[in-house]
Amino acid sequence: MFTRDSEIQGGADVKRQGGRWRTPAVAALAVLIATAAIVGLADRAGYDVSALIRDAAAEFDVPISAGSVSFIGVVMLLLTSGAAAVTAMATRTNRAVLAAVGLLSLMLALDDQFMLHERIIKRYFGIEEEVVMAVYALWATGLLIAVWRGRLKPWVSGLLVPAGVMALSVTADQVGTSYVIEDLLKVTGFGAWAAFWVSVSRATLQGHA
Length: 209
What we know:
The protein is an all-alpha fold and 209 residues long. It is built from nine helices and no strands.
């Protein structure tokens, strides 16, 4: 009996060991294939491949601090997306809300990094910037309602902080104030957004939310 139990335990250990290297190996292969495909398509389209691969400061001879404030905002959004996504996969508690937060944060990060609503979406799909911003606003409003009506209701006051700051940033953009004010408000809002949802994710994993 002891031998049989030991064999079963040994088999389980082998499976766990395999999973530990298999996941990063598959991820590495997927990233390699995806980036190689992007570079290949860019090269066929006549784009300068080095502009995609090399660091912007080295490629375009700009100060190393160029875009650093915007970069901080993107990092905050990716941090939020990762924390929410991992928590949603790890537990059923608050799963729908956290999955929606993770996806929205990822979309905002991609939008901010690649200027999707300013250039790409309008140029290739004919959708105006205001429409895209309205979709984001409705998405965020839906999250606020979900938090208010669900088990995260005690946290709703914390969500109002990033929501309010980002609303001020959008307002500053629409009324045409200084881009400095708009971008500082935006990054501040992203920071508050990250702090709030990372806290919620942690509390969810600990069983406190």
